[in-house]
Amino acid sequence: MSVTTKDVARVAGVSVATVSRYLNGHNVLDENREKIEQAIKQLGFRVNPIAQTLRTNRSMTVAVLVPTLANIFSMSIIESIERCLDQYGYSIMVCGSRGELAREEEKLRFVRDKRVDGVIVIPVGSSGSHIAEIVGDDIPVVLIDRVVDDVRFDAVVVDNTNAAYHAVEQLIIKGHRRIAMIAGPQHIYTARERLKGYRRVMSDYGLAIDEDLVLVGDYTSDTAYGLVKELMQRDPRPTAVFVSNYEMTIGAIGCLNELGIRIPEELSVIGFDHLDLSSVVKPPLAVVAQPRDEIGRKAAELLYARMSGDTTSFPSLIRLKTRFIQGSSIAEHKSG
Amino acid sequence: MSVTTKDVARVAGVSVATVSRYLNGHNVLDENREKIEQAIKQLGFRVNPIAQTLRTNRSMTVAVLVPTLANIFSMSIIESIERCLDQYGYSIMVCGSRGELAREEEKLRFVRDKRVDGVIVIPVGSSGSHIAEIVGDDIPVVLIDRVVDDVRFDAVVVDNTNAAYHAVEQLIIKGHRRIAMIAGPQHIYTARERLKGYRRVMSDYGLAIDEDLVLVGDYTSDTAYGLVKELMQRDPRPTAVFVSNYEMTIGAIGCLNELGIRIPEELSVIGFDHLDLSSVVKPPLAVVAQPRDEIGRKAAELLYARMSGDTTSFPSLIRLKTRFIQGSSIAEHKSG
DNA sequence: ACTCTTCGTGAATTCGTTTTCAGCATACAT
DNA sequence: ATGTATGCTGAAAACGAATTCACGAAGAGT
Fold first, then answer.
1. Which residues of B touch A94 (CB under 8 A)?
2. Rounded Cα distance, B287 and B325, in Å
3. Could you check: is the Cβ of residue B57 within 7 Å of any atom of nucleic acid strand C?
């Protein structure tokens, strides 16, 4: 059926061992090299990566495991990982955990059995013991976006706390006092960190936090829509709001548009993630932008280093900076 | 190192053949079944999928090959494919062709060598002969979003021509005559189809097409930004514009906002794709929405059927309907 | 001229499964 | 009692590569 090293060996008049050595870049007599190259070309030989993997336990594949594929954050990251690892000859296998621990475990077992050489994962929970247990020490792991608190892994994250801190600080500087926050689900690392940033800056500026203005969503657009609706019924209303992820920003803006609330005259708004947004919304939205490409690239580079046996400064926590995009959605607030 | 069928066989006191038969659901003496199950549990045995693939040439994996990973269209589709095939025990391997034919070929060869059981691809060009040549008849292929004109493949697409037709028709019905279109690159199937729809409806309504109002972009946001800027310098200006993909819609809206052009008072706008957009933009944008989940699901189901040996009505072309979201970005035009 | 390395080689084994094939029961029909 | 289905079994041969090992032919050193 398909052409194997055995065929190549036969045609070239050498043994399969020599063919194999040639393929793996070992030394081969020039004479044999030529005959082998000729035979390979003539037969259209391509090495069978499956057989290779069975024998060597290396697959030149890394797994990327994320809670959900269909959001811009995951996708940009997957794209940049693919681009980066492609250069080194690695391909990627993507899996969705759908935010379920059981599925995360199941997928990890699956890719381990598939002999992937490395794993990049956005963990669903704050524990990583199951990850360590499943992939063991054989397979390098790099966490993205979130860290776990019980196992030491390499990780690439952004400085969520500072990002939130600086964003809210902008509002404070402009005179806002009643600043609301649409927070994310507190079982998710980034959501906790961002809320922490909010609390910290409020505290640092000596502002009391009205807990009625801190609404906890679930990182989805629909829920945020409802929360903002609820928020705008507070009396007195907040004069500004910080929304802490992309999907929720979408929902929030949609709601405000529908309520006919003018930005920033009636409400100053800072969104999160996704640059496009800031230009599409009128007025241009101030947002916290994550360096998505860089996250993916750094994670891929780090994983590649680990897969190549480089264990320098393990575990290394790479914390990237976010960027604040000014926009025009923040108004000066004449304090009262 | 790892525990194999041989170990299971030894512990259970049967032969590896019997273990294999048990694993593949063949008949086995109840007595042996019990002993094997016990041994498997005791040893924590997991079948090695690589060895399985080597032997059977089946990997329970399908490849998804798209021009770019990092856009919402690709990702939604990949997500729904993953969800669907996950049920059947298949996992997916995603690859990006970056719109380059050479890379598409290279990736196809790669996944074929990896013994994927099926391929779902958004082809970069309008020819599919290289696809047929590389994957041959062994591996089922389902095209998505675009069709090729030289080979018959199963395909799942949307009715781009009608989508554009109906969208522009809305504008015509509201009295618009100077209707601009931001078209996509004409080497891409969907872009051609959408432009065709525009031309057809204009012709059907007996409207002359001002070629100065048909600007061809490259499906990217930045280019569309420039094109819209150019467009608005036309004299007389168009009274409406139809933008024919998501990224270009982003760029167009961004530009219009920046120019301070009021929608729909000064310009009626219809965008493309991505529901979120219609709510975030003020006023809510009229858009043509593609049934992204359905595209992915149908493609996955079809591929699954093919992989299972069902060749009913091959090749089948599934053409899905788009949905027109009304929005408030279209004004009545008092014709002059 | 002699041993001692070094280098490239081929035969054979291995990776962990599935599958073929003959063998051996047992059950059934005659 | 004999013959033939039927059902399950284990030994062995795949699948296609990498690797171990012993070996022969050079080259180096004395």
1. 78, 82, 92-94
2. 5
3. no
Q: Does any strand D atom come closer than 7 Å to the Cβ of B316?
A: no
CATH of segment(s) B5-47: 1.10.260.40
- How distant is the Cα of A133 from the closest Cα of chain B, in angstroms? 14
Domain A57-158+292-321: which CATH class? Answer: alpha beta
Domain covering B160-290 in this structure, CATH number: 3.40.50.2300
Nearest nucleotide to the CA of A15, by C1', is C10
Global pTM? 0.92
How confident is the model over B221-274, as pLDDT tens digits?
A: 999 999 999 999 999 999 999 999 999 999 999 999 999 999 999 999 999 998
The DSSP annotation for A239-266 comes to SEEEE-SHHHHHHHHHHHHHHT--TTTT
Pairing outcome for strands B118-121 and B141-144: parallel
Q: What is the CATH topology of the domain spanning A160-291?
A: Rossmann fold (3.40.50)
User: What is the domain partition of chain B in residue ranges?
Assistant: 5-47, 58-158+292-321, 160-290
Minimal Cβ distance to B50: which of A53, A76, A258: A53
The reply to whether the CB atom of residue A4 sits less than 7 A from any atom in nucleic acid chain D is yes
Average the pLDDT over A309-334 and give the result: 94
Beta bridge partner(s), residue B225: none
Q: Which of A64, A98, A253, A282 best tests the B interface by mutation, with the highest count of B CBs <10 A?
A: A282
User: Among partner residues B72, B257, B282, which is closest to A257 by beta-carbon distance?
Assistant: B282
